[in-house]
Amino acid sequence: MKKFVILGGGYGGLTIASNILEKDLPEDTVMVLVDRSPFQGLKTEYYALASGTIAETEIRVPYPVDPRLILTYGEVTSVDMDNKQILFADKEPLSYDWLAIGLGCVDNYHGLPGAEEHTFSIQTLGQTRNTYQCVNDIAPYGQVSIIGGGLSGVEMAAELRESRPDLNIRLIDRGPSLLSSFPSNLQKYVRGWMGEHDIELRPNVSLCRIDGGELQNNDEIIKTDITIWTAGIQPNPIVRALNVPKDKQGRVVLNEYHQIPEYPEVFVVGDCASLPFSPSAQAAQGQGKQIAEVMQAAWKGETPKLGKIKLRGTLGSLGKKSGFGIMGFGIMGKSTLMTGKIARAIKSGVLWKSKRHFG
After folding, report:
1. Where, residue-wise, is CATH 3.50.50.60 in the chain?
2. CATH level 2 (architecture), domain 2-36+74-106+233-299
3. Cα-flanking dihedrals φ and ψ of residue 74, to 5°?
4. C-alpha 280, offset from chain centre
5. What is the pTM assigned to this prediction?
6. CA angle 341–354–246, rounded 5-degree value
7. How many C-beta atoms surround the C-beta of residue 304 within 10 A?
8. For residue 11, what pLDDT is reported?
9. Angstrom distances, CA of residue 281 to CA of 62, 105, 115, 125, 225
10. How far apart are CA 130 and CA 148, in angstroms?
11. CA angle 32–258–256, rounded 5-degree value
């Protein structure tokens, strides 16, 4: 039997599997989904799990049950593309005929001394569980510092304020404003929300070292009880180790069919892929649908016809009652900006669809 192996059951990998299962696989082909976990964790909601406002069961998504899909669990250590094998820490290698790599990202500490050792993460489900435990063990009036004023940092700070109104929460960023990639009026709205909810904003901070409960900002020492890192991501180390062309962020350069040109039987989906837009669940799902189309065309001996991946926008939450976002593109390429309850309600709807495998 031929094998189409999907590494990683995240947004991209699960979308590939679900879309292929909606069609017919060749009789001589099986699909194998490999992950370290027996279910998908909705990573866009890890900030809420870390804050303690939702239970883990709320962000678990079961994998499809289908005789054409083989689920296998293990810790992948490397991919040998020359010999078409996936190597594991705890089991025999797995061979493939086609491979989709969707292993996601890890934190990027930018070489900051002490950052990896002395901060908490929300990148993996295991790390998020640990962050939840430590955050919620802090005594009342304790200090939480969140490094990174992007979308993840903002959502983490806002959700934690809802969960623990007794804590002191500080959001630190090296730039002049949080959400630097968003329009200025959305930045202003979120800054106002943070001020109303007693979240301290510290812009223009250039940390040079993290040492336990001390954050060193040039000559200033910023005291903290716990530090959460949301200041950047990079591709999974397994992908970084692949000897193929990559962009400046270390993401794999692909052809128009999401294949590695030197290894056309290998696709890369999600955070590890070099795309014309920032990594996101939405981008991974868009890629996943197209990779499924490419495989269906290949099995039929046809040339795939792919359109342009169109992103619907970006949404952020400010607790359970407010939010912000940029949605769609209207006349003259202008997008619609939203704030408040409507933006939060739309994000809740997106989460509802994700939990039920709706794209």
Report:
1. 2-36+74-106+233-299, 110-231
2. 3-Layer(bba) Sandwich (3.50)
3. 170, 170
4. 6
5. 0.93
6. 105
7. 15
8. 95
9. 17, 12, 26, 16, 31
10. 19
11. 150
- Sheet containing strand 263-268, strands side by side: 69-73, 29-35, 2-7, 98-101, 263-268, 259-260
For residue 312, report the phi and psi dihedrals to the nearest 5 degrees: -85, -15
What pLDDT, on the 0 to 100 scale, is given for residue 330? Answer: 42
Q: Tell me: the pLDDT tens digits for 270-328?
A: 999 999 988 999 999 999 999 999 999 999 999 999 999 988 889 999 999 999 999 87
Note the pLDDT of residue 332: 40
3.50.50.60, 3.40.710.10, 3.40.50.720, 3.30.2010.10: CATH of 110-231: 3.50.50.60
Sheet holding 214-217, edge to edge: 207-211, 214-217, 220-223
Terminal C-alpha separation, the chain: 30
pLDDT of residue 205: 97
Residue 179, pLDDT > 60, answer yes
Q: What is the pLDDT of residues 40-80, one digit of tens each?
A: 999 999 999 999 999 999 999 999 999 999 999 999 999 99
Task: Output the CA angle 293-66-98, nearest 5 degrees.
Answer: 40
Place of tokens 């049950």: 65
Q: For tokens 């799990």, what's the residue?
A: 49
Which whole-number Å values give the CA distances from 238 to 213, 288, 299, in the listed order? Answer: 32, 20, 28
pLDDT, tens digit, for every residue of 87-135?
Answer: 999 899 999 999 999 999 999 999 999 999 999 999 999 999 999 999 9
Residue 336 corresponds to which tokens in the numbers above?
A: 């619609």
